[in-house]
Amino acid sequence: MSERTYNVLFLCTHNSARSILAEALLNHLGKGRFKAWSAGSSPRESQQPNPLALETLAKAGIATEGLRSKSWDEFGHPDAPKMDLVITVCDNAAGEVCPFWPGQPATAHWGYADPSEAPGGEDGKREAFRQTLHLMGKRLEIFANLPTSSLDKLTIERTARELAKTA
Q1: Reading across the β-sheet that carries 34-40, which strands appear in turn?
Q2: How many Cβ atoms sit within 10 Å of the Cβ of residue 54?
Q3: Of the four, 13, 89, 158, 160, which is 20 to 30 A from 166 by CA?
Q4: To which H or E segment does residue 58 belong?
Q5: CB 45: neighbour CB atoms within 10 A?
Q6: Phi, psi of 127 (to 5 degrees)
């Protein structure tokens, strides 16, 4: 009997850095138990994932194929994948009024500084992306390795919110 796959949506304002990192990382760590997506409340026209996000993921051995910036509106439609958990990863998105998510998923907020705004030129930004991926990895490794008995809606939400206090 195969295990159920849990759907997780990571949100950020522009869906170009933090949420992209989280999507790719959970898909990497989730080993089929989790399917991650990412989206933004207001991605810019022709927005693409930040090249430093893609570079950081590639250097960490994490697949980047198929990553793209998209609006969270894609996930508010009745035919969209039903999410089990929605996590905001930037403070701006956490404060915005989110659309109605089909299935009323659990929610949590994991705030990370925007690595694309780090000081120190390209080297400073590269280090900030690496550090953000590392911090996300610590939380997502714990989350991805939860026992199946811990994956009911209330436990998912409580665990995700508790993990926000770590790192």
Answers
A1: 34-40, 6-12, 85-88, 106-109
A2: 19
A3: 13
A4: helix 51-59
A5: 4
A6: -65, -40
Query: CA quadruple 11, 12, 13, 18: dihedral positive or negative?
Result: negative
- Which residue carries 């109605």 as its tokens? 100
| Structural domains of the chain in order of their starting residue, each with its CATH number | 6-157 (3.40.50.2300)
Element at 47 (helix H, strand E): none
Cα 122 from Cα 69, distance rounded (Å): 21
For the chain, the helix, strand and coil percentages under 3-state DSSP, each to the nearest 5: 40, 15, 45
For residue 36, give both structure tokens. 């991650």
**24, 64 Cβ separation under 8 angstroms:** yes
Cα–Cα distances (Å) from 66 to 24, 105, 143, in that order, read 10, 24, 23
Model pTM score: 0.90
For residue 71, which phi and psi values (nearest 5 degrees)? Answer: -80, 150
d(C-alpha 32, C-alpha 49), whole Å: 23
pLDDT in tens, 75-131: 888 888 999 999 999 876 545 566 666 677 888 899 999 999 999 999 999 999 999
Contact call for residues 12 and 90 (beta carbons, < 8 A): yes
Helix (H), strand (E) at residue 129:
helix 121-144
Q: Describe the crossing of helices 18-29 and 121-144 by its angle, rounded to 10 degrees.
A: 40
